[in-house]
Amino acid sequence: MEGILTLDRELDVGLLDRIVQTFYMGAGAEQQEAQRVLTQFQAHPDAWMQADAILEKAEFPQTKYIALSILDRLITTRWKMLPKEQRLGIRNFIVAVLIKNSADETSLQQQKTYLNKLDLTLVQILKQEWPHNWPNFIPEIVQASKTNLSLCENNMIILRLLSEEIFDYSAEQMTQSKTKNLKNQMCGEFAEIFQLCSQVLERAQKPSLIKVTLETLLRFLSWIPLGYIFETAITEQITSRFLTVPAFRNVTMECLTEIAGLTSQPQYNNKFVAMFHLVINAVSSMLPLQTDFREAYEESSSNEQDFIQNLALFLTTFFSSHLRPLETPENQEILLVAHSYLLNISRINEREIFKICLEYWGKLVSQLYEEMQQLPMSEMNPLLNLSSPASLISSNPAMLANLPLRKHIYKDILSTLRLVMIESMVKPEEVLIVENDEGEIVREFVKETDTITLYKSMREVLVYLTHLDVVDTEIVMTEKLARIVVGTEWSWQNLNTLCWAIGSISGAMNEEMEKRFLVNVIKDLLGLCEMKRGKDNKAVVASNIMYVVGQYPRFLKAHWKFLKTVINKLFEFMHEYHEGVQDMACDTFIKIAQKCRRHFVAQQVGESEPFINEIIRNLPKTTEDLTAQQTHTFYEACGHMISAQPQKQIQEHLIFDLMSLPNQAWDNVVAQAAQNAQILGDPQIVKTLANVLKTNVAACTSIGAGFYPQIMKNYVDMLGLYKVVSGLISEVVAVQGNIATKTPHVRGLRTIKKEVLKLVDAYISHAEELDLVSHTLIAPLFEAVLLDYYNNVPDARDAEVLNLITTIVNQLSELLTDKIPLVLDAVFGCTLEMISKDFSEYPEHRAAFFQLLRAINLNCFPALLNIPAPQFKLVINSIVWSFKHVSRDIQETGLNILLELINNMANSGPDVSNIFFQNYYIPLLQDILYVLTDSDHKSGFKLQSLILARLFFLVESSQITVPLYDPTQFPPDMNNQLFLRQYIMNLLSTAFPHLQPLQIQEFVQTVLALNQDHPKFKLALRDFLIQLKEFGGDNADLYLEEKEQEIAAQQKAQMEKAMTVPGMIKPVDMPTMEEEEL
């Protein structure tokens, strides 16, 4: 096998064929040896010189593919270094091979994969050579296409690939200027290409050529001037000749959809409308409107199903761009027919198609609502000269009947759409009970992100539909519920979708209408619950009652008796053992507690005491059938209510009553443990202690700072227990070794430690009197926790310790600065040793460790200046190690720490900053340049570029006043600016020898000059990285920041818009306003 590696003599192509066959078809050691030899062969810098021999002589197809991959690598990384003659030779050779293999129909069909790879190689050459070194390429390929049908077919593919490379994929693979030049050239020479496509589509009879030409045209349509589309007969040609032909209808519809998405000047409106008429008439002949689309889709072939999806895309794209010209009286009939088609498609049981339709329905109802909102009140009621609130308009649809609103055009469409949305409604995330594949009602454990996103979109549409005609919405929903109650439409699915829809429009009606509507709905549902027999049926109805009431906090707040009835009903459901019902009852209870918390601690009219008193008094009975986790949720819900009690004394009394059961259990066990620590060997005792601590964590999380009396009551005992448990764990580990940490007994003991830490964390994160916390809680805590962490074996160290210290540092800030050296001595070195052996072990400790470092740097920076130099160096090394990590989160944390540290140092005065930068500037610069140019760290590009710009600024602005170099090794006129330029150029030329010195020099001068203009600095960096061979693959991560900013801007705009539409933000998701609760 080694024979193919000697490239100074003629290559034995037969031997290469056999090695490639061994790799693809062999096994064992022989296959591994073949892989090793082939890898070496492909990596050899002169292997490309054998490509012509391989392509001409190889028998095995994969051998030819290897030759082409070697050529591709050469073209993308070293093309400009080759002499002109060699470049021309390679180019002409590839063209000759292409012509040879595509000149006749047999070869074209048999060599399809090989030809495709050859086409891609030619396109790579074109990206380097065209237009400057190959100005006649377009005329040549067009002329060649006219000589031979098979050649024409393959040339169409080449033109399509070239278009894709330039217009679709260029942003992440080519520099900005190169992309611009190629786009201009392609547009400038398009007339000849278009003429070729037109001739083929007009005259060709060969199906494969027609299909390829349509696919190529499809790629052109997004960027060619509109004149080619509307000032020629191309649209009529493809619609009349190909749309009704099964073999071509899908690609034709894709072309028409691409055209439909183009925006233009008003002069082309008539052309768009004419095209729309042509398409709808053609569709009507193939697929009559009366067809049962849902059933037809199920029985269709995949090709026919694709056509329905493409039809949906065409309609939604056309409506999104050109709806208004269709709303004229003469076009209304076809407009409504087309919308009826879209309604029928929306009923199909195929999620991806439904999502396409839903996106458009969302746009339509949003536009119709906005038009309605812009009407001044005086037009509807001359007696009132003020703008109309949304709720007044939407609750009085009759007021709008005589106004020229677009929504009147769509009245019947919107009414049907309401029913379609209700019947298609997907499950909200609050619903925990689902029907499984076996038709059983079970608890759902995994949230489907796609379903949650879809629910939010459907909810928006239903809210808008409610505002557009609240009366019709109520009629559609109540009639649907009536049919379910009497049994004509009873099914779990029908009840679920209706109730999910009812819950989704909470806040969209005015209060009076909502009250009437909801009272009727709940009354019907409660009656249905009583009427239905069977556990599964009752569970479905119960889950829907809980979901609906949980969505209407405004109604519950305004109707105390109803709120109390609902809560008591939830307490009943807490005794229901059917899977998921108790979970949902607890979740609904906590949701209502959060939104209506003041109502539980206030004494309501007709009541003898606040309801919270009764809830706490009956707590043992209410929770007797709940699991431990459900009970913790119950305590957390009560905590939310108690947090709303403004009088501190009453609040403390409520906390005392709430925690009486857990405190009794705690006091009992602690008293026994004080007499005999061996009782902690009893698993039941350990479980009890862990449960009590978890109950405290749950209550503390919601009560917040008011939990201080409760935590202080048990604080000393808690830390004492922590020490005792730690001692027991150490004893077991000493006897049994590390394996002991995995035993049930030790894991149970560690749960106690973890819950103690979580409880202190929960309190300190909410604490308000920070001086009190600093003086009373920290010293005993550190005494119990720090030395124990340091002395433990790695497997027995709890990441919660690091999380807790991070919380303390963030909360107490400079109050903790003097204790940071103590913290670092205890946790820094030993944790670093645990996580620095590889990139995967101890993931929780790893994330917590770097979060702690960041917190210390941000809040207690002076402490870092006072630690010994070796420890500080270790801190820097750990930061560098973190941003070289394979985990994105840890990379990001490390880069943030470094940027914040550099800023802190730069702001610390020359005495501190100069020493730091003299020691660490150059090593840090080298490390940042390493990750910047490493393809595994592309996701950190935003922060890497910020750090680099900051480092450059500090030198260019002369803020660093000491030399960053050894003055004894350089001439007297050397300075930091000059040194930095030379250093970066040397570093890059050594790392990337294939780059020209002038290229590197230009890049370095550019980025140093742009250090304060970050957007331009990033663009220059990005262009340089794309030129590097390491970045030949997917460079999407280099654009991560722009994508994230775009998403954030969209989300902000959506939120601002949603806030103006009543009901658009779910009432349970609205921030709780204190005055609302009074």
Oligomer: single chain
Strand order of the largest sheet: 1-2
Main β-sheet, in a few words? 2 strands, antiparallel
Give the total of beta strands.
2
CATH top level assignment of one domain:
Mainly Alpha
> What is the CATH topology classification name of one domain?
Leucine-rich Repeat Variant
Instruction: Specify Rg, calculated over alpha carbons.
Output: 36 Å
- Strand % is under 5%
CATH superfamily of one domain: Leucine-rich Repeat Variant
Going by CATH, the architecture of one domain would be Alpha Horseshoe
* Ends distance: 85 Å
Please state the overall shape, judged from the principal axes of the Cα atoms. Answer: globular
Low-confidence stretches: 378-391, 1030-1036, 1073-1078
Tell me roughly what share of residues is in helical segments: over 70%
Give your account of this protein's structure.
With 1078 residues, this protein is mainly α. Among the domains are: 225-358; 703-867, Alpha Horseshoe (Leucine-rich Repeat Variant), CATH 1.25.10.10. The chain has 55 helices and two strands. Strands 1-2 form a two-stranded antiparallel ribbon. The termini are far apart. The model is unreliable at 378-391, 1030-1036 and 1073-1078 (pLDDT under 50).
Task: Summarize this entry quickly.
The chain has 1078 residues and is mostly helical. It is built from 55 helices and two strands.
